TrEMBL record:
It comes from Psychrobacter aestuarii. It comes from the Bacteria. It is found in: Cell membrane. Residues 8-18 have a biased composition (Low complexity). This is RDD domain-containing protein. Coiled coil: none annotated. PANTHER family: PROLINE-RICH ANTIGEN HOMOLOG-RELATED, RDD DOMAIN-CONTAINING PROTEIN.
Length: 211
């Protein structure tokens, strides 16, 4: 009898909480992550620009002793060396982080992760394709701004509007995908807390698995 009573009084097992699953990242969260990453990218571009400016000055210019003798770097150096270096810095930043753990530092803060259609980390080719896809609309908008006005301010403003269009597009897509998601066959997910793994932990785990 005592065993029956104790069994009857035993509380039922509590229902397990529902397990969250990864979902398509919302545009607002993506934009906040871009702002985070933008600060780091600007610092990297400033560093690269400073180094190349010093090198270009030593190689192509005579150092003046007053402001009247100061000159700008040659156009061929700015367009043929500095611009490609800035592009490679941008590609290297996103490509390296996406290849290593699927997320940049800004994305890690907001538990975002970029994967391909098979749910795997991007290859270098997929990362480059995604970057080109993200730059497509800003480039088109900048071209139109240049035709309409032609000033640098108009071109930069148009390019910014093109960047915003990539994420406004999410509101009109049934799956909530951005332009670069569709064109590159990749997706940025919002990871649940219990399944989220930090970038540095991911890198350490991958190194441990290789051993």
């Amino acid at each position: 009898m005592s065993k029956r009573k104790s069994a009857a009084k035993a509380p039922p097992h509590a229902a397990e909480p529902p397990v969250d699953t990864p979902s398509i990242a919302k545009p607002t969260t993506r934009l906040v992550a871009i702002v985070y990453d933008g600060m780091l990218i600007l610092a990297l571009l400033f560093l690269v620009g400073t180094i190349l400016t010093v090198i270009g000055t030593l190689l192509t210019m005579q150092t003046g002793v007053n402001s009247d003798e100061a000159r700008t770097l040659p156009t061929w150096y700015q367009n043929g060396v500095m611009t490609p270096a800035f592009v490679l810095t941008l590609v290297g930043f996103y490509g390296l982080f996406w290849r290593r753990g699927g997320q940049t530092l800004g994305m890690q803060t907001w538990r975002l992760k970029t994967l391909n259609e098979q749910g795997r980390l991007l290859t270098w080719g997929e990362a480059f394709k995604r970057i080109l896809a993200a730059c497509l609309m800003p480039a088109i908008f900048a071209f139109i701004g240049g035709l309409v006005d032609g000033s640098r301010a108009a071109i930069l403003t148009s390019a910014f509007l093109g960047l915003m269009f990539n994420y406004v597009f999410c509101a009109f897509n049934r799956r909530g995908l951005a332009v670069q998601d569709m064109l590159s066959n990749t997706v940025t997910l919002k990871m649940p807390k219990q399944e989220h793994e930090g970038l540095w932990k991911t890198i350490r785990n991958r190194k441990a698995n290789k051993k």
